[in-house]
Predict the structure.
Amino acid sequence: MKAEAVPRVSHRRLRQLIGRFRGKKLAVVGDVMLDRFLRGRVTRLSPEAPVPVVEVDDLEGSPHPGGAANVVANLAALGATPTLFGVIGRDAAGRALEEELRRQRVPTSGLIADPTRHTTVKVRISSGHLHIARVDWEQRTPLSKAAQTKLLERFQRVLGRVGAVVVSDYDKGTLTDHVLKVILNSCRARGIPVFVDLKRWRAWEIPATLVLVNERRAAEMTHRDVRNRETAHAAGHQLLEALDCEYLVMTRGPEGMMLFDRREVQDGAPIRDVKSRPWEVFDVTGAGDTVLATLALGFVAGATLAEAAELATHAAGVVVSKPGTATCSPNDLLESLRRNYSGRAQR
């Protein structure tokens, strides 16, 4: 299968698109969670077992929105006006997440506090650049019918007022088959573009504008080894045939992204690759959320697939250079463009 690199989008065009981000309205629905980070120093091994002892500097761990909440945080940081729909528990973690979202000026009216569930929390333990361990506190059982009904009712109330819907699936029970089908079919009926990040395979077609999948998920879904370009192309083509979407984007870490446009594939055009930009990688936590948010916002701002992917690549480079679950601002994006277009004609 043929492949070609995507021609570099003009600097002026990308700046123009970034200028259109502010105030764009999007809805994000999916699995919300709270990320915490314990950072310290490793000076010795434990005498009780061959594991490192981390002398923690921050005992409580700073709270960060994770999962679908991180997608919303990234949209807000980029200047959009997002609304979040998801489920938390009536617990301290849920309250901490709501408080942090409000601090970032993200509306929380779409969050449902379910007394039968607890808020998903992920605690990452690290020393310098070294990720030592992660501790998860989660409940992956499907939402109750009552919670599903309540979530969909709140979602339907705002559907006519948004330019796009972003679906962030972390397989924690929020996006049941019923919830996902109602959301996707409602959006299709209204002509609202939908951007989906798949974390598990669905046995039915996904009616969406764009589906985002990382290399590991693509391998699991297609039962292929996708470590080289040719097999990754074949896996993406297989997924595009199985899913009811216009575009498929496969992220490949430092290799960048592969872009699959259904119309171009049907016409026999080569699959397009977008290369990653040279950034020092500090922490990859949440980078996929940043890519999803930037792709969706780029489309709402009028970008083509190649233009949205170029912006998403820059945004991902920004967040992996920061510690923890980070976000990217318009100024961050502009600075990345300046750095990567320096010495070139900035048309």
Residues 288 and 317 are 11 Å apart (CA to CA). The mean pLDDT is 87. The chain has eleven helices and 15 strands. The first strand starts at residue 3 and ends at 5.
